[in-house]
Amino acid sequence: MTAFSLSGQTALVTGANTGIGQAIAVAMGRAGAHVICAGRSACDETVGMIDSAEAMALDFADPMAARDLFETRPVDILVNNAGIIRRADSVDFAEVDWDDVMDVNLKALFFTAQAFARAALPRGAGRIVNIASLLSFQGGIRVPSYTASKHGVAGLTKILANEWAAQGINVNAIAPGYIATNNTEALRADPGRNQAILDRIPAGRWGDPDDIAETAVFLSAPASKYIHGAVLNVDGGWLAR
């Protein structure tokens, strides 16, 4: 196995039906992993893009949906990508929108990682890659629960690394910048907003899902064996400006 190979590994990618999650699943497959493509929506398209893959229904509206998953399915790599967002002025933000976002983005992420670790700790090996956000570091506007949840993802990444690094589990996160996906289509279609974003990005372009996907492969591969508790900004330099 080379330093960047995932041959012989099994990776579970949540939210793998589209966008960044789909790109990560496909990249894991290119690197040699068998990929379990999990999502609330069907992942058949993603599975069809990978040599060795399977689909799994997993709806984190129940944050404990994966609590028993790893007892029967050996998994080497967990990518916690599933997430939702709700938008409203903070003065008007509804409790249900707060709870729904926190359940999927933070509570489910923690308890899925916990279930994974309970299976991985006895064998002394495992990789967890959490998908954080620029809003793990910035406030944003009109997305209070999303911002709180992504700040939480950064914090959980660090505490889990502190507890599990010496026991063979690498826990890290990726903070994507502005990526060209369905979720950002409206921003890119607005000429003024699109230009304002591009003017702030030193790289001068929107990110591609593959920019995040290949970083996830790196954090899952032997090449990153001494990286623990990192939140890696993949943002074209946005946070540097």
Structural overview:
Helices cover 39% and strands 16% of the residues. It has 241 residues and is of the alpha/beta class. The chain starts with 9 loop residues before the first strand and ends in a 7-residue tail after the last strand. The protein has a single domain, classed as Rossmann fold. The chain is globular and about 50 Å long.
* Name of the level-1 CATH class: Alpha Beta
What distance separates the N and C termini? 38 Å
Strand content: 15-25%
The geometry reads as: globular
User: What CATH architecture would you give?
Assistant: 3-Layer(aba) Sandwich
Give start-end ranges of low-pLDDT stretches. none
- State the strand order across the main sheet: 3-2-1-4-5-6-7
Which structural class fits the helix and strand makeup?
alpha/beta
Number of strands: 7
Helix coverage percent? 25-40%
Question: What is the name of the CATH superfamily?
Answer: NAD(P)-binding Rossmann-like Domain
What is the tally of helical segments?
8
Mean pLDDT: 97
Rg for CA atoms: 17 Å
How many domains is the backbone divided into?
1
Order of helices and strands: EHEHEHEHEHEHHHE
Q: What does the main sheet amount to?
A: 7 strands, parallel
